[in-house]
Design a protein that fits this description.
alpha/beta; six-stranded mixed β-sheet; 10 strands; about 25% strand
């Protein structure tokens, strides 16, 4: 768990204000708010159907909120199209990787570089981060393992040179050793100036890498704070909706005892 202190002053690189999102008649997110500061790994945890992926997709511009605002570098980007957000510096690694299966590894990376910002990340630098890639660059994505596809999806996002990297369920469907290997690359990504907003069902993994965390339950915030300031009991109570969950020091009060709107049956 990280003991990093959040800045008292300065502009958050990403801010979500009172975000409410509907899927048809169902409320997937209800009044969700948080700030992510440069250099952080901000983790969103919660069970399946909590609204985590909906949150990331809304930040990326793939869902339109019913209420609330999304600010990037202090500017309101709530109405900005997804491609405009990407070129501004918000890139997402979606759940399920979403590579082009008929394209090669390198061709998938080139897709991410199509509208890249100026910055340190190039295809060659991705090959330095994932050293196995260069020799496999002509292999089709459909022929790669799940871990290799996940690494390629991360590389595709990095070559766009984002300031904020949205990572959706990196560990989903992968062997633990592969998950550890992929998360082991985070320090090098952070050193390049990228800030990470991470969605993860694996609470242990999220707590290990996060500087700040927020738990969602049925689209509502039930816990927020630094990993070092919350107990395992608080995390469990917030995750499962047990009475008595409380925020960590400096966080917002949780509301696990309040009836919530039903979340989506499964996250998109």
């Amino acid at each position: 768990m990280s003991n990093a202190t959040r800045p008292e002053n300065g502009t958050a690189v990403l801010e979500v204000r009172d975000l409410t999102v509907h899927h048809g008649q169902l409320r997937a997110l209800s009044n969700v708010s948080f700030r992510v500061y440069p250099g952080e790994v901000y983790a969103i945890i919660g069970a399946n159907g909590a609204g985590k992926s909906t949150l990331l997709r809304t930040i990326a511009g793939l869902h339109h909120p019913a209420a609330g605002a999304i600010l990037y570098d202090g500017e309101d980007v709530t109405g900005l199209r997804p491609e405009r957000r990407a070129t501004a510096g918000i890139a997402m690694v979606p759940e399920g990787r979403r590579l082009f299966p008929s394209l090669t590894l390198e061709e998938n990376l080139k897709v991410g570089a199509t509208f890249a910002r100026e910055g340190p990340w190039t295809i060659e630098r991705v090959y330095e981060l994932f050293t196995w890639m260069k020799d496999r660059r002509n292999q089709r994505a459909a022929q790669m393992s799940g871990g290799e596809q996940q690494a390629t999806a991360i590389g595709r996002a990095l070559v766009a040179n984002p300031r904020v990297l949205l990572l959706d369920e990196l560990s989903l469907g992968l062997a633990p050793v592969v998950v550890q290997r992929i998360y082991g690359m985070l320090p090098q990504i952070l050193e390049s100036g990228v800030t990470v907003l991470l969605v993860e069902q694996d609470v242990t993994q999220a707590l290990r890498v996060a500087t700040h965390l927020q738990c969602l339950l049925e689209g509502r915030t039930t816990l927020e704070g630094r990993p070092s300031d919350v107990t395992a009991e608080q995390v469990e109570a917030a995750y499962f909706g047990m009475a008595g969950a409380a925020a960590g020091q400096g966080g917002h009060p949780g509301h696990p005892g309040q009836p919530g709107h039903p979340g989506e049956g499964s996250e998109p």
